[in-house]
Amino acid sequence: MKDFAALFTTVDQTTKTSLKTKALAEFFKTASDDDKLWTIALFSGRRPKRAVTTTQLREWAAEVGGIPLWLLEESYPIVGDLAETIALTLPLPSRQSDQPLTYWITELKSLAALDIEDRKIRILDAWDQLDPVERFLFNKLITGGFRIGVSQKLMTRALAQATEQEEASLAHRLMGGWSPETTDFHTLIEAEDAAADDSRPYPFYLAYQLEDGPEALGSPTDWQAEWKWDGIRGQIILRNGTHHVWSRGEELMTDRFPEFARLSDFLPDGIVLDGEIVAWDGSQPYPFNTLQGRIGRKTVPKKLLKEAPVILLAYDLLEENGEDLRDLPLQDRRTRLDSLLYALPDDAPLRPAPPLAFDTWDTLANIRATARDARAEGLMLKRKDSPYLSGRKKGDWWKWKLDPLTVDAVMIYAQQGHGRRANLFTDFTFAVWNGNDLVPFTKAYSGLTDAEFRQITAWVRKNTQQRFGPVRQVKPHHVFEIAFEGIHASPRHKSGIALRFPRMSRWRQDKPLQEANTLDDLKDLLETYG
Amino acid sequence: MSNTVLTFTDRGIYCPAGDFFIDPWRPVDRALITHGHADHARPGHRRYLCTDACAPVMIHRLGSISVETVKFGEVRKIGDALVSFHPAGHLPGSAQIRVEVAGEVWVASGDYKVVPDGISEPFEPVKCHSFITECTFGLPVFKWDDQNDVAKDLNAWWAKNTADGKASILGAYSLGKAQRLLAMVDPAIGSILTHGAVENTNQVLRNQGYRLPDTIHVTPDLNVKNHSGALVIAPPSALGSQWARRFGPSSTAFASGWMRLRGVRRRRAADRGFVISDHADWDGLMSAIQETGAENIFATHGYTDIFARWLNTQGYNAQVLKTEFGTDEDDTAPTGEAA
C-alpha cells in the first residue's frame, strides 16, 4: 500500500487541484488494474462492506495503545477523525510490509467469514505492519466514507488524463450500480461500451447559483424558465422492459418509489427522463417534508402510498428509442419531451414540468416572486440551445432561488466540528424567545468564515456554563441571523417547528440579546409559508 | 499536602514563605520568570528574577524592567524559601523553578520538552514532592518523531523548492521555534532570510553566545531576487500576507506540534506541516512526571481535565490548575503558535 499512501500524502500536502489531479493520473498510469479499480471505487463512494464495528476498533486500538478506552474517546473529538485518532495512538509497527491496496481490501472483506476473536487478531496484525499513514488509510477503509480531499470529479479527470479518454464519457461509464466485485478495470474503463448496463444513468447536469439578477444573461428570448421544485432530482430509465430510478447522489431508488413501475403503461421503451420527484397533492407538490417521509423508507406501506404519492415532474429527455439525445439543443429535447408526454391521463405518475412564459426579465422577476405559492423554491433558467452537459458547468443552466427566510436567534449550545473543523466550535444550537425562556428550534453549522469560527470558538471557551459530553451550554449572548429555505410543523421538536437548510447568514454583533425573534414570530412564518 | 509551598491566586502561582509569584499574569511586587514567552513573562511587575540566559530576551521584549539574574542551579534564599532554576529544554534560557520550604519541594515546570533540540539547555529532571506540569500536548495522539528525521524532511522540502525555483516560507514562532529550526536546517542549501521579529531575537541570542547559522534580515530595500530558492523564516501571521508576496513563487509550511493533526494542517492551508514542538509529547510528559518522583501533580495549560484524570488512574494525586498560560486554558487552541 506504499504507493497508495504516497499518493495520499501528495494529495494531502497540496490545496491545488491541478497537482492532485497530476498525482492521481500518475497513479492510474502505474498501479495494477485491481488497485486502479479499487481507487476508482473508493473515490466514487463505493466501499468494501464493513467487517468490524467502529466500537470494536476503538476498544482494540485502546488496548494495543496501552490506554483506557475513555482516553481514546476523549482524544477523538480533538483529532476530529476516528481513523486518524487510532492511527496516531497505536505504537509504531514492529515490522514492515508492502502489500498492495487490493490485498488489504480483500483482507478486510475476508473478515466477514471469521468469528470476532479472529477478526481482532487479523486487524491487530495489519496495524503491526503498516506505518502511520498506511494505517490511517487502512482504518479509513473500515470507518466510513473514504473522504480524503479527492472528489469523484477530480478522480474522473485524472483517469481521463491517464487513459486519454473523454472526461464526460468516462463519467458516464462510472455511473450506476457497478462494484469492483462485479466488474474489472478493463470492462469498466477500456472495453467497447456496447453492452452497457441497462440500469446505467447519465451524469446529471447541475446548475450554478445565479448570484445577481438575470440581466447579464443577455436576451430573455434565448432562455427557458421553469420552477425550481423542492423535491429530489431524479433520472428514470426505461430500457428492455425494466425501469430504474436514480437520485442525483447516484442512489438507486427504484423500490422506494413503486409508483414508477406503471410508467411502461404510458411510455415506450428506450427512454431516459430527467426531472424532479415530488410528493403530489393532485395539482401541486406537497412541501418537501412530506416527501421526506418517503425517502427514509426502503419499502412503502400502502397508507403512505396513498397519503403521499410521488410523481416525476419531467423537464428533460436524455434518451429516446435508445438514442443518446444529450447533444441536441434543449429546445429540441423539450419538443420531443412534450410530444412524448402529450395527453397523458391525470393519474399517470408523470407530467411535464411546465415552462414559464415571459418576455422580459422584469416579468420573470415577478413570476419568481410568486414561487412559494407554486410550492417552488425559485426558478431554473436554461439556455434554449444548450446541450445536456455532465456535472456542474457554468454558463447554460442557472438556478435563481428565492431569497431565504430569516430569523434572528440566540446561540445557546456549541459543539466542535470534525475533520477540517476539528478543534473549532462550528455546530451551534439556536433559540428564540418564548416569554422569558429561550426555546431551542434549530441547529446550524455553516455560513461563517474561518476567522469568525475562530473568534466564536475563543468566546465559547471562555463562556461555557455547563458541559454535556461534547456539547457546551454557553451564556446566551450572541445573536445570529439564521437563513432557511422552508419551515414546517414538527411534533418531534420542542419548538414544534423544523427548518429546511438552516444556516448562519450573519453574525448580528450589533443586535442585543433581547431583540432576537420570538416563538410567536416563528409560528407566524409557519402560518404563512408552512 | 500539609506544607503548601505554592498557592494559586488570581494573580498567579504564589509562594507565601518567600512572598513571590511565578510567571504571574497580573502586576506583582516580585516575579520569578521561567521563560520569555509573552504568556509567562508579562510586563508591569516591580522586580523580575530569572536566569542569566533568559534575561536578555525578556529585556528585549519588555523594555526597561528591573531584573535580577541567577545561574542555572544556583540556590537563592528568598524569605523562608530556597529557590533555584533548572533547564526546561523549552527554548534557550528556559527554566523550571524549584522552590523548597522546610524540606518540602515543589517544582513549577513552566513549559518544557524532554528531548534535546540542539540549542536549548537540555531538560533536567528535578526531584520534588509536588510538580506543576504543563500539558499542552497531553493526549496519547501526540507523539513526536525523532528531530533528525524531521530535519531530513525539512531540508528535502527546502532543497526541492530551490530546485523548482521557489522560495520556502516557513512559519514559526519568533522566539524559540525559529532558532531551533535554524539549528536544524542545512545552510548549504541556500540563503536563509528572516522576518524582523525573528531576526531581532536571533541577534539577542547570538550576543549571548548561542550559535546560529548566518541569516539575512528581510528589510524593505533587500533585493529578494538575489536570493532565489531561499528559506524564509517568519512568524505564522506573516504567511499569506503582503509581506510574504514579495518572494514570488513559493511553498509554505508551518512548524508546530499541532501539525500532527491532519485537520489543523489542512485548516492552515499551507503546503506542508512539520511536526516540531517545543513542548513535551505524551511520552515526554509521562517520563518527566515519573522522574520527578512527585506524588502531587498540578496540570495546567492544555488538556488539563483529561490529563489529570489519566494521572489519577496512574496512581498520582492530580488536579487541574487553572492559569492564564497559553492562549487558552480551558482546552486546546491550535492557534497556540508557540507550540
From TrEMBL, chain A:
It is an enzyme of class 6 (ligase). The keyword Cell cycle applies. It catalyses: ATP + (deoxyribonucleotide)n-3'-hydroxyl + 5'-phospho-(deoxyribonucleotide)m = (deoxyribonucleotide)n+m + AMP + diphosphate. It comes from Marivita cryptomonadis. Keywords: ATP-binding, Cell cycle, Cell division, DNA damage, DNA recombination, DNA repair, DNA replication, Ligase, Magnesium, Metal-binding, Nucleotide-binding. It comes from the Bacteria. Residues 303-434 form the ATP-dependent DNA ligase family profile domain. This is DNA ligase (ATP). Transmembrane segments: none annotated. The keyword Magnesium applies. SUPFAM superfamilies: ATP-dependent DNA ligase DNA-binding domain, DNA ligase/mRNA capping enzyme, catalytic domain, Nucleic acid-binding proteins. GO terms for biological process: cell division; DNA recombination; DNA repair; DNA replication. GO terms for molecular function: ATP binding; DNA binding; DNA ligase (ATP) activity; metal ion binding. Signal peptide: none annotated. Its EC number is 6.5.1.1.
From TrEMBL, chain B:
InterPro entries: MBL, RibonucZ/Hydroxyglut_hydro, Xnuc_lig_assoc. Its EC number is 3.1.-.-. Keywords: Exonuclease, Hydrolase, Ligase, Nuclease. It comes from the Bacteria. One of its GO terms (molecular function) is RNA endonuclease activity. This is Ligase-associated DNA damage response exonuclease.
